[in-house]
Structure formats: structure tokens, C-alpha cells
Design brief:
Helix content: 40-55%
Order of helices and strands: HHHHEEHEEHEEHEEHHEEHEE
Shape: elongated
Strand content: 15-25%
Distance between the termini: 81 Å
Low-confidence stretches: 1-16
Largest sheet: 4 strands, mixed
Structural class: alpha/beta
Mean pLDDT: 85
Number of helices: 10
Length: 287
């Protein structure tokens, strides 16, 4: 490229004579670049150098394309593209998302990610959730496994799950308000779930109930009869307390364990007036 700083201070008179003898051509950037520098007068050479710089400057990127690229970057950080194929269009502050993902949780992640962009005022979420060929029983089994690994789910909570086609209904009781949202968010990311109904009840906050939960749980899991459960990292007996009323929920390996857990619970609260309801189920043995 011509560099204006490299042009001699003296004018190239011979260059002017050469230009006068030539017919007036159509000067393109390529043609100008091919000419020797000395054929140009100083002022003309400076102009040519500036024009060449402009010709090589990158074209401005349309604001719409920039907004789409930024939204796509937000989607990438939210790991949306690991769970499906999502397309983005943008016009007048509205981002439209389309394509397919494997769960309603990822669909909502995509919408929230798009809203993080400062140019996006509203999101139209047309993403479709695919069931990936999974049956209702397979989706339910995945949801149960995911629930057991959820950080917010403890032995003081109990959750019941039901699946109808691609809709998951979540019920039960938890001890803290944040658990209701955390558990539902986690379960919404189970593959094949296109809709989730959150019917979880938050138990009243009570120091008295909290003390009863701790007493009953320690009485059960400190009992040598349940040492095998603890050693295996299994805590299947859940202790629910609502205004002094105690409910045991979950499953155990035998009827003897079911009865033993109830005895431990009653002994732990023998000095209190709380009733004990035993809803423990004996797990069916696999053939």
C-alpha cells in the first residue's frame, strides 16, 4: 500500500507529464496500487494513499448481525448448544429463538440467556422440546435419579413425581422456600420433559419443628439397625415435621426396618406431644 509519509517532498513533474499523455482511465484500487509512486505529484499521491486506506478498511457490520452474535455468545455460555440446535433472529429489540432442545429447562435457559444482552428488550421463545424417543417411565426414572443428586434435597424434605407423556408434576414438602425453586429447576432439565408443574409445599418455618426433625433423624440413623443404609450412603427415610406432627416417608428394605424406624421416631419424641405417622414403603426387590 502507498504510504503518504514515504512520498518525496518535491513534485514529480515527469509524473504529471505522463498522466497528461494517457487517456483518462477508470482508476480502481487495484489499478492505483500497480502504478509506481513517482508518477504522482505529491498532493495527488497523498490523496491516492488515503483512498487506498479507505478501500482496505473493513465494511461496517450491521447492528442486527452484532446483536445476533452477542445473543449466540450468551447461549453458548449457558451451554444451550450442548442440548440442542437453536437459531436466533433479531429485529427492533426483539430476539426470536427457534429450533429444538432436549428439555424445558434448557428452553428457559435460552430465554434467560438472550435477555442478558443489553440490546434485547423482549424474547419470543419458539423453541420446541423433543422427547428424544423416551417413554414416560424412562423420563420418570431419570427424574428420580436427578432428584437424589439435587443439592437442595435432604432427608427433611420429601418429593413425589408423576409423568404424563412429556409433562412432569412435582409434589411434596420442603423446609425452605428456595428448595421449591431449586428442585424444580433441576428436574426441568431432565431429558424429554417439555412442561413442569410445581406443586411443592413449603413447610412453616419453626424452631420447634426443626428440633423435632433433628431428634428423629438422629434416633433413626444412629440406630445400628440402619448401619447398612448409612454405610452404603443411602438415607431413604425422610423425616417431615409440620407444626409438631411427624411423618416418616420414603422406602426401606423390609417390613422390620419400617417398624423399627417408627419405634425410633416415637422414642425420640416421647417427651413431646407430636404424633408419628408412618408412610414408609417396603421397596420391591428386583428379580
Amino acid at each position: 500500500m502507498l504510504n503518504p509519509r514515504s512520498i518525496p517532498l518535491g513534485e514529480a513533474v515527469a509524473g504529471e507529464e505522463w498522466l497528461k499523455r494517457k487517456p483518462a482511465p477508470v482508476w480502481t484500487a487495484t489499478a492505483l496500487r500497480a502504478l509506481p509512486l513517482e508518477v504522482f505529484p505529491r498532493a495527488l499521491a497523498v490523496a491516492v494513499a488515503v483512498l487506498l486506506c479507505i478501500s482496505e478498511a473493513p465494511a461496517a457490520v450491521p447492528p442486527q448481525s452484532l446483536a445476533i452474535a452477542e445473543v449466540q455468545e450468551h447461549l453458548r455460555h449457558a451451554n444451550v448448544f450442548k442440548h440442542g440446535d437453536v437459531q436466533v433472529t433479531f429485529a427492533n429489540g426483539v430476539a426470536t429463538l427457534s429450533g429444538t432442545v432436549d428439555s424445558v429447562g434448557v428452553k428457559m435457559d435460552a430465554q434467560n440467556a438472550a435477555l442478558r444482552d443489553e440490546d434485547v428488550v423482549r424474547v419470543v421463545n419458539d423453541i420446541h422440546v423433543t422427547d428424544a424417543g423416551l417413554s414416560s417411565n424412562q423420563i420418570l426414572a431419570q427424574a428420580r435419579r436427578r432428584l437424589l443428586t439435587c443439592y437442595a434435597y435432604t432427608i427433611y424434605d420429601y418429593i413425589e413425581l408423576a409423568v404424563h407423556e412429556d409433562k412432569l408434576t412435582v409434589g411434596g414438602e420442603v423446609t425452605q422456600p428456595y428448595k421449591k425453586d431449586a428442585i424444580a429447576y433441576d428436574l426441568a432439565h431432565v431429558r424429554g420433559i417439555a412442561a413442569l408443574e410445581n406443586n411443592i409445599t413449603v413447610l412453616p418455618l419453626s424452631m420447634y419443628d426443626e428440633d423435632l426433625r433433628t431428634r428423629v433423624a438422629r434416633a433413626i440413623y444412629d440406630d445400628p439397625s440402619f448401619a447398612d443404609y448409612v454405610d452404603a450412603g443411602r438415607l431413604p427415610i425422610h423425616v417431615l415435621v409440620n407444626q409438631g406432627s411427624i411423618t416418616l416417608a420414603g422406602s426401606v428394605d423390609s417390613q422390620m426396618d419400617c417398624e423399627r424406624a417408627e419405634q425410633d421416631a416415637r422414642l425420640a419424641v416421647s417427651m413431646f406431644d407430636g404424633a408419628v405417622i408412618n408412610n414408609l414403603q417396603v421397596a420391591e426387590r428386583e428379580p
